[in-house]
Write a structure and sequence with these properties.
The chain is α/β, with parallel strands linked by helices and 349 residues long. It contains 14 helices and 6 strands. It has 2 domains: 67 residues, 5,6-Dimethylbenzimidazole Phosphoribosyltransferase, Chain: A, domain 1; 269 residues, Nicotinate-nucleotide-dimethylbenzimidazole phosphoribosyltransferase (CobT), large domain (Rossmann fold, 3-Layer(aba) Sandwich). 50% of the residues lie in helices and 9% in strands. Strands 3-2-1-4-5-6 form a 6-stranded parallel sheet, sandwiched between helices. Helix 6 crosses helix 10 and helix 12 packs parallel to helix 13. The longest helix is centred in the middle third of the chain and has 20 residues. The N and C termini lie far apart (63 Å). The structure holds alpha-ribazole-5'-phosphate (RBZ) and nicotinic acid (NIO). The site of alpha-ribazole-5'-phosphate has 18 residues, from helix 4, strand 4 and helix 7. The site of nicotinic acid has 13 residues, from helix 12. Catalyzes the synthesis of alpha-ribazole-5'-phosphate from nicotinate mononucleotide (NAMN) and 5,6-dimethylbenzimidazole (DMB). InterPro entries: Nict_dMeBzImd_PRibTrfase, Nict_dMeBzImd_PRibTrfase_bact, Nict_dMeBzImd_PRibTrfase_N, Nict_dMeBzImd_PRibTrfase_sf.
Amino acid sequence: MQEKEKLKEWTEGIPSVDAGAERKARAHMDQLTKPRGALGELETIWIRLAGITGQTQPQIGNKRVAVFCGDHGVTAEGVSAYPAEVTGLMMENFSRGKAAVHVLARRFGARVTVVDVGSRLENVPDGVMDRKVRRGTANMAQGPAMSREEALESIRIGMETAERLKKEGVQLAATGEMGIGNTTPAAAVAGILTGKSVERMTGRGTGLDDAGLKRKREVIRASLEVNRPDPTDPLDVLAKVGGLEMGAMAGFVLGAARHRLPVVLDGVISTVAALVAVRIAPQSQPYLFASHLSVEPAHGVLLEELDLQPLITAGMRLGEGSGAVLAFPLFDAAETAAREMATFSELGR
Ligand SMILES: Cc1cc2ncn([C@H]3O[C@H](COP(=O)(O)O)[C@@H](O)[C@H]3O)c2cc1C
Ligand SMILES: O=C(O)c1cccnc1
């Protein structure tokens, strides 16, 4: 299938949210024994879940984080505080269920699915799905990170993952990632898609010092200069200065929206991927929830661009989907309130 047809098919399959179900959920919230609106974002969560699922009593018991892994050629420029090998080591850690995202997911009753879309590992550890498009991107400071075809393929794998999770009965999904160096493409894509400066969008990632941050900004400027991505063409931006796990998370959003599966975003990489998805298909925006506000400076700008409110500010800058998992208990709180609280009409009976 040609690229244009593919994108058209992916975009057109996304239903609009159910305004009737939203109205009923809102009316129910207003009847509960509390001042109107007093449960704040919990009320918004419940009402939005109703619209997304088309059910006035949405189910969210089956929660899953999809973690996509990829490596980055741009790490050759010294843009991360950690060596590129850590991506593979962390995938080993995922396999053992000992990474932050796993321990938090266990704590909050969620499961983790790990998909390798582009790590450098030849053999992936047990339990990690090998869907590699290529072994790491090329160095974007010297040319495009990947081809358009590869970018499209990463999106397709993300969509397929969302579809699979939906079939497995997942009711609330989150996106996370692992890829040393990926806050560099994240800042580049975020800057291009929002029109903000490299200065504004670039942060310290895993913990660069001042000299490292200066270098990272120079590398991003050089990458934009060399590649000249077209801000009106999200696929061009993704291919030239993005990453494979970013493409897969964008595809995951498109696939989830198509199947009425709500998606909780994590930090800056997960959120920039969602912006790529929304630029491809604006109809996917209503299926998104923000979780926390990352320390990375681009994150707040991206959330604003997506018109999303972060639920938590915890000073986190980890990734993996860890911040998204942290928001799951707030979804449970919304569900419990909606299902178990008395209504005013029940009082005094
Ligand atoms: C041990 C370790 C575990 C991680 N888990 C997520 N990240 C996070 O840090 C990386 C991005 O930051 P930068 O662009 O500065 O490399 C990504 O892999 C992201 O998921 C980690 C980073 C490290 C070192
Ligand atoms: O915002 C994030 O998710 C993030 C920040 C720094 C490093 N890795 C991820």
